[in-house]
TrEMBL record:
Localization: Secreted
GO cellular component: extracellular region
Organism of provenance: Octopus sinensis
Highest taxon above the source species: Eukaryota
Keyword field contains Secreted: yes
Name this polypeptide is given: Mucin-5B-like
Length: 284
C-alpha cells in the first residue's frame, strides 16, 4: 500500500509522578534513585527514606543530637550515632563535660574525653592511726605536732619525762615534795614551789598546824611558816627577882603580888618608925 507511514513503536520517555523523563534519565525520588528504562517504565530503589528513633521520625541524611553525640538517619532506615562519652563518672557520681568539683581538698574537672582530671595535693595526714587535716595541730604526749601541706607530720622531740630524786615523772605530772608541789616541765626540768613547810621557833622546828607552849603562852605553826603566839605576861620581875603570875611575896613589911598584867602590886607601908631621931623597923 502506498501513502502509509510505518514507524517503530518503542517508548521515547517515561512518566513518573506527573513528570516526564527521557529514556535513560536518572533522577531521585526522596532517598531512592530512579531510572527511565527503554521499556518506558521507571525503576527505583526501594529504600524506606526515613528512620524511626526514640519514637521520632527522621529523613534519610538528617542529623540530630543524642546527648553530646551526633546521629544520622541512613538510607537503609537505620540510625548511626557517634559514641563519644558525654559525661564523666567519678566515684559513682556523674558530671557533665567542663564541670568542676571538689574531691576532698583537690579540684577536679570533667574533660571532653570523659576522663576526670584532679589536682594531686595531700588533703590530710595519718599519724598513729589517726587522721588530721592539713594545718591541724595536735599533741603527742608532751610534744606538739602539725599536719604539713606535704601530708607528713612534724612533731617536737622532747623526751616527755623528768628524773627527780631517782624517780621518773611524765611531762605535766605533778608530785609532792614536803608541802610543796613540783611539776615536770616540757624541757625535762622540775619546777617546785618554794613554800615553807615548817616553822622554826627558838631553835625548835614545828610542822604546820602544830600547837605548843612557850612558857604560859600557846603558839601555833601557821601555813606561811610563821609562829603565832598569845601575848600574855607569864611572870613579873621585881627587884631582880622573877615571880610567877599570882605569886605573893614580902618586900620588907609590905605584901606584894605578881599580877596577870605582869606588874607587881605591893602594899605601901613605910616599914619603919622614927623616934627621938632614931629609926626603928616595924615591930622592933
Amino acid at each position: 500500500k502506498y501513502g502509509q507511514v510505518d514507524c517503530t513503536n518503542r517508548p521515547c520517555h517515561c512518566t513518573y509522578k506527573g513528570q516526564t523523563y527521557g529514556i535513560g534519565n536518572r533522577f531521585s525520588d526522596d532517598c531512592n534513585q530512579c531510572e527511565c528504562l527503554a521499556t518506558g517504565y521507571v525503576r527505583c530503589s526501594t529504600y524506606l527514606c526515613q528512620c524511626k528513633y526514640n519514637n521520632k521520625i527522621y529523613k534519610v541524611g538528617e542529623t540530630f543530637k543524642q546527648g553530646c553525640n551526633t546521629c544520622t538517619c541512613k538510607a537503609d532506615g537505620t540510625v548511626d550515632c557517634t559514641t563519644n562519652p558525654c559525661t564523666c563518672t567519678y566515684k559513682y557520681n556523674v558530671y557533665d563535660f567542663g564541670a568542676e568539683f571538689k574531691d576532698d581538698c583537690n579540684t577536679c574537672k570533667c574533660k571532653n574525653n570523659g576522663q576526670v582530671d584532679c589536682t594531686n595535693r595531700p588533703c590530710h595526714c595519718t599519724y598513729k592511726g589517726q587522721t588530721y587535716g592539713i594545718g591541724n595541730r595536735f599533741s603527742d604526749d608532751c610534744n606538739q605536732c602539725e599536719c604539713l601541706a606535704t601530708g607528713y607530720v612534724r612533731c617536737s622531740t622532747y623526751l616527755c619525762q623528768c628524773k627527780y630524786n631517782n624517780q621518773i615523772y611524765k611531762v605535766g605530772e605533778t608530785f609532792k615534795k614536803g608541802c610543796n608541789t613540783c611539776t615536770c616541765k616540757a624541757d625535762r626540768t622540775v619546777d617546785c614551789t618554794t613554800n615553807p613547810c615548817t616553822c622554826t621557833y627558838k631553835y625548835n622546828v614545828y610542822d604546820f598546824g602544830a600547837e605548843f607552849k612557850d612558857d604560859c603562852n600557846t603558839c601555833k605553826c601557821k601555813n606561811n611558816g610563821q609562829v603565832d603566839c598569845t601575848n600574855r605576861p607569864c611572870h613579873c620581875t621585881y627587884k631582880g627577882q622573877t615571880y610567877g603570875i599570882g605569886n605573893r611575896f614580902s618586900d620588907d613589911c609590905n605584901q606584894c603580888e605578881c599580877l596577870a598584867t605582869g606588874y607587881v602590886r605591893c602594899s605601901t607601908y613605910l616599914c619603919q618608925c622614927k623616934y627621938n631621931n632614931q629609926i626603928y623597923k616595924v615591930e622592933k
